[in-house]
Amino acid sequence: MEKWRAADRLLKFSSRFASAVNWNNSCKSKQGKYFYSVATTVHRNPLFSSISPDDISYFKTILGERGVVQDALALDAANTDWMGKYRGSSKLLLQPKNTEEVSQILKYCNSRCLAVVPQGGNTGLVGGSVPVFDEVIINVGLMRNILSFDKVIVSGVLVCEAGCILENLISFLDDEGFIMPLDLGAKGSCQIGGNVSTNAGGLRLLRYGSLHGSVLGLEAVLANGTVLDMLGTLRKDNTGYDLKHLFIGSEGSLGIVTKVSILTPPKLSSVNIAFLACEDYTSCQKLLLEAKKKLGGILSAFEFLDSDAMSLVLKHLDGVRNPLPPSIHNFYILIETTGSNETFDKENLEAFLLHSVESGLVANGVLAQDINQASSFWHIREGLPEALMKAGAVYKYDLSLPLEKMYDLVEEMRVQIGPAAKVVAYGHLGDGNLHLNISAPAYDDNILAKIEPFVYEWTSKNRGSISAEHGLGLMKAAKIHYSKSPETVRLMIDFDYCVFELLPDTSCLDDNHSIICLCLSA
Amino acid sequence: MKIMVAIKRVIDYAVKIRVKPDKSGVETNNVKMSMNPFCEIALEEALRIKESGLASEVIAVSMGPTQVVDTIRTGLAMGADRAIHVDYPGTLYPLSVAKILKALVEIEKPGLIFLGKQAIDDDCNQTGQMIAGLLKWPQGTFASKVVLDKEKQTAVVDREVDGGLETLCLDLPAVITADLRLNQPRYATLPNIMKAKSKVIKKLTPEDLKVEIKSDIEVVKVTEPPKRKAGVLVSSVDELIDKLKNEARVV
Q1: How far is CA B8 from CA A159, B43, B118, B139, in A?
Q2: For the residues A162-172, what does the mean pLDDT come to?
Q3: Residue span of the signal peptide, if any (chain A) (predicted)?
């Protein structure tokens, strides 16, 4: 029996490796709105089963009528990603209410060889949160309880279910005098389980570090239904391999995260924001270094956007005005400080800014005088993805690059693309993370051909990352080799294989077209 | 012509207000304070009038304890030429503020006094009207548009009233209070913040101005409004009518 299983497993893997470069033609026929990267192609593995009426009845016995969704409209939303770029054809959406239900669903799907895709807020930008084909969607959105909040230890420790929306957690903590260690534009819809599975970065990584540091524990359900309880609330625990780190950022390929325990920093009262204009990229870099030196302890965000980004936002976003009228400057920097002494922080920031103006690093700038003005500065930066969507088609790239080289890529891309599309750049300069967006009137393979593989090769040559924080998903799984060595990828695959192999009764790989397998096929 | 603008330091508009446990007032410890939004709009209008050449100087005035100077600095950073801080540690109600302003007006002799229509902490909407009464000056409150005529020495003010818009013509000197749609205040730019550091803030006390602060009002208790109850889904029109009739008693 065991030998058969091993051989069967190898067979499935190899069929995936061998799978050719053929997009499902029916996808292409839905032209216009939906778009797929020409370079990546996936074939539905015939070894996965299709849903049968018996499956539906079984799910209904576990989840009740309301937990099993087959309504066309609801499915349409769940099948499509936020950008409208990736579209699956799933016929079934499941909404478990607790870990036990998740475990039962996965156990069943595993035994039936039904492919699944875990889904949270569906705000991902790389097609990782929607089905590729007809995978069963397991949406944890109903698991939104806050289980406990402890403010007695060093900082607050929040334990909650994976379906909690980030903004709701932020509001809850606000009342308690704490904040979430991450913040992103999608906070109104994204869920903490997805944030953790993607290792989301966000606007405050500069100050509070990545989720690898702030997540104290998590509970996840593996492919065969095994519940892995790693939900510690301890700050320090060096007992064996810290497996939660593998789940953080694994994009659901190892299991579905069901509960998260996270360290929450205290909410500090003194927040100041400045919106600055710089004439060239070198000044931006120098400003960052100066800010880290002079504002070190209180610096909480350092974002940048270029002139094309600013023009786009002013044109397409409602309720936005140019903080430094009348012209558009070459670069804009948003600096935020968070501290506990209002007067001291404000003086510190003002002194730093005035010095920057005098030394020529900053051409001009404004300092927010109240929370409303601060929000309006953030609205400009956080509203960029939305503005890009409204402007038409957008090719989105999220790259980590050495600071001094970052803008070179943008300029070279402009030369590559020419007048066909606009190259818009913004990002977390403080983290060395560039969000490169090419905005075109419509999706056009000619434009795409000029972008890829140029952008990946450029990034690889400079030892950057082709996905700083968005993850690989469907968009970039096959591109992993641009940023990871073959030996590293091999080990990832071996590990992935190992995890499933070691689990009793995993008769087939359940994570849909597991990212790792996509990587190997490239 | 000089323009005097009264500005107030209040809890920032975006802050979630909490009532103190002893119900004596609102929690102000460690809470972000800013310039009252309507005062900001008033100051912006004064600056625009000056920039159009119809006024020579904008003087920002604020009253209260030392911390008020932070807000005055914001006013100077926006572009006010100089400021006056009337130092008083306690709470000042609108009538006291109006009396102090009257004393200042007698010293500075401005042609126009601008205020916000109301402060967002007490929502009194009284100071502008009171000072106009004390000075016996005409008043244009809830202004959504102000047009000055230097020759005729008048101000044409569009007011936002319940029925729509009312247009008044006031002889200067006059009192105008600003409403939300009057303008969108400018941000404080770094060069202006730099310039503001060397602008003068004159400090005075109510005693200097021979104004006696006494209040006929005492805040007895502050409580939160009742929490909003969750909504209920009804399953039919009949049930809705029944609930409207028997529970909400509105039909």
Answers
A1: 42, 11, 10, 20
A2: 96
A3: none
> Sign of the CA dihedral B102, B103, B106, B110?
negative
CATH number of the domain to which B93 belongs? 3.40.50.620
A453-464 residue pLDDT tens: 999 999 999 999
Strand order from edge to edge, sheet including A93-94:
A68-69, A93-94, A136-139, A116-119
Predicted pLDDT of residue A185? 87
Number of structural domains (chain B) is: 1
Residue A50 scores a pLDDT above 80? yes
- Which residues in A93-185 belong to E strands, given as ranges? 93-94, 116-119, 136-139, 146-150, 156-161
Question: In this complex, which of B70, B74, B189 lies closest to A364 when CB atoms are compared?
Answer: B189
Share of chain A residues as helix, strand and coil, in percent rounded to the nearest 5:
45, 20, 35
Q: Which of A20-29, A161-170, A264-273 has the lowest mean pLDDT?
A: A20-29
pLDDT grade for A14, boundaries at 50, 70 and 90? very low
Q: How confident is the model at residue A506 (pLDDT cuts 50, 70, 90)?
A: low
Nearest CA in chain B to A171: B16
Closest partner residue to B12 (CB to CB) among A174, A324, A370 is A370
- Name the amino acid, one letter, at A404: E
To test the contact with chain A by mutation, choose from B16, B189, B190 the residue with the greatest count of A C-beta atoms within 10 A, namely B190
Asked if the C-beta of A347 comes within 8 angstroms of chain B's C-beta atoms, the answer is no
A354 in contact with B, Cβ within 8 Å: yes
- The neighbour count for residue A515, using CB atoms within 10 Å, is 25
B27 within some domain: yes
Q: Are β-strands B139-149 and B154-161 bridged in parallel, bridged antiparallel, or unpaired?
A: antiparallel
Task: Tell me whether residue B234 is in a domain.
Answer: no
pLDDT-based confidence at residue B15 (cuts at 50, 70, 90) = confident
Token pair of A434 as six digits: 């560039």
Across the interface, whether the CB atoms of A372 and B15 are under 8 A apart is answered no
Q: Are strands B9-11 and B33-35 parallel, antiparallel or unpaired?
A: antiparallel
At B152-163, the pLDDT tens digits run 999 999 999 999
Taking CB atoms and an 8 Å limit, are A367 and B13 in contact across chains? no
**Number of C-beta neighbours around residue B234 at 10 A:** 13
Query: Does position A245 have pLDDT exceeding 80, yes or no?
Result: yes
Say if residue B214 is exposed, middle or buried (CB neighbours under 10 Å; 0-12, 13-18, 19+).
exposed
- Subunit contact B37:A357, Cβ cutoff 8 A: no
Looking at chain B, the whole-number percentage of residues with pLDDT higher than 90 is: 78
- On whether any CB of chain B is under 8 Å from the CB of A124, the answer is no
Among candidate residues B201, B185, B170, the one with its CA nearest the CA of residue B85: B201
- Contact (CB, 8 A) for A314 and A320: yes
Least confident segment among A170-184, A220-234, A272-286, A492-506: A492-506
Do the chains contact at A357 and B194, CB–CB below 8 Å?
yes
User: Is residue B218 domain-resident?
Assistant: yes
State the DSSP code for A47. T
Q: At B178, give phi and psi (nearest 5°).
A: -90, 140
> Domain for residue B167, yes or no?
yes
DSSP string, B90-108: S---HHHHHHHHHHHHHHH
Residue numbers of the domain that contains B188: 2-226
A354-394 pLDDT per residue, tens = 999 999 999 999 999 999 999 999 999 999 999 999 999 99
Instruction: Report chain B residues whose CB lies below 8 A from the CB of A355.
Output: none
Q: Quick count: other Cβ atoms within 10 Å of Cβ A264?
A: 24
Distances (CA, A) of B204 to B4, B65, B76, B81, B85: 16, 11, 18, 18, 6
pLDDT of residue A171: 94
CB proximity under 8 Å: B 89-118 to A = none
pLDDT of residue A504 exceeding 80: no
